[in-house]
Amino acid sequence: MQERIVIVGGGAGGLELATMLGRKLGRKKKAKIMLIDRNSTHLWKPLLHEVASGALDSRLAELDYRGQSAREGFQFLVGTLEAVNKNEKSIQLAAIKDEQGNEVLAPRSIQYDRLILSIGSVTADFGTPGVSEHCYFLDSLRQADEFHEHLLNEFLRVNQSIEDGENTKLSLAIVGGGATGVELAAELIHSVSLLSIYGLSFLDQKHFEVRLVEAGKRLLPALPERLSASVEKKLKSLGVEVILGNPVTEVKENTLVLSEGENINANLMVWAAGVRAPDFVSEWGLKVRKNNQIEVNEYLQSVSDESIYAIGDCAGCRIDDERWVPPRAQSAHQMAECLYQNIVREYRNKPAKAFKYKDRGSLVSLSRFSAVGNLMQSKSLSMSLEGTLARWAYASLYRMHQRALHGWWKMFLLLMVDKLNHVVKPRLKLH
């Protein structure tokens, strides 16, 4: 009887793992590989800030799960994970309803022999009052699209107000000086610089304010201080006001309350200050960290159940006694590769190998203006990048994700399609 391997979560790690296992085991009928996700399409999560700003039309970058499953030898089910029953080795999927609330599919129970959780992360609000009520998050494509829709409405409103002779500005505030906050700030500046091309000629950078608020003493703590200072300098030159060492204590309607100094008023506020695994993870009887990450051993198995694995942002995996694997796309990719190799080794009656995280460094894009990063060759050897070379390195991260899903040949074809779309499609999505 075929082993049933169920993967929940079609993010970078989950989809890459399902694709690799489908090719190796699913096509040969050695195992039944099943991928479950609440959405029907996949978008690489580091692209969400581009969707939010209008720099990327998500429809041009989405991958259809069903199409991928048909090509690569796994089965896809759309569904939202509701519960995990360790004793019965089953998961419960919630009912699926249409926009009118009519039930399309009843709740379902799915049996598994091996369960792999790759359910990603959500933004952490650290218990700050008012965040969920008044701030936008960029954890999913739906949230990025929602912010983009409201951003367009503000573009239209403020542009018309200025045309009518009013002295007004559009003000945005971003909380969190990590990669998401920094990249979004730069993309928003770039988006406004393009508005005049598409008829919104009154709203320019003089009437546009972006404030980036970070509780820590510097931006991008994952990067060396020199690069962090370079990013801060570049953002300020673009017109972004950077506020450091001043945490937000409360969020009110159109207002960020800071621990020190004046409050910040803004038309739109985005919270990108930290990550944690979803709250419901703690309800499944698995040992979790304070941030809800599932604690796993060196083979990425839950320390509570050897039949359950976790990879990506939802996995709490130790590097050593003091450090944990950071929640990054490269971590999910490395975990998916390790778990794939170990499952294949098991089918060949070979022992599993422990997961060892290799920090390849960090890269941050400042829209079309610049990029910075450091590439780690080893613990003692790293290379700092800025400008064009860093932009190429940053772009290659997405291409490597595409290569993992499609292979080299199709990845190059997709690269050519993207280049053609850049020529024939508008530079800014305004619908």
UniProtKB/TrEMBL annotation:
One of its GO terms (molecular function) is NADH dehydrogenase (ubiquinone) activity. InterPro entries: FAD/NAD-bd_sf, FAD/NAD-binding_dom, NDH-2. Keywords: FAD, Flavoprotein, NAD, Oxidoreductase. Residues 4-336 form the FAD/NAD(P)-binding domain. It holds the Pfam family Pyr_redox_2. Belongs to the NADH dehydrogenase family. This is NADH dehydrogenase, FAD-containing subunit. It comes from Idiomarina loihiensis (strain ATCC BAA-735 / DSM 15497 / L2-TR).
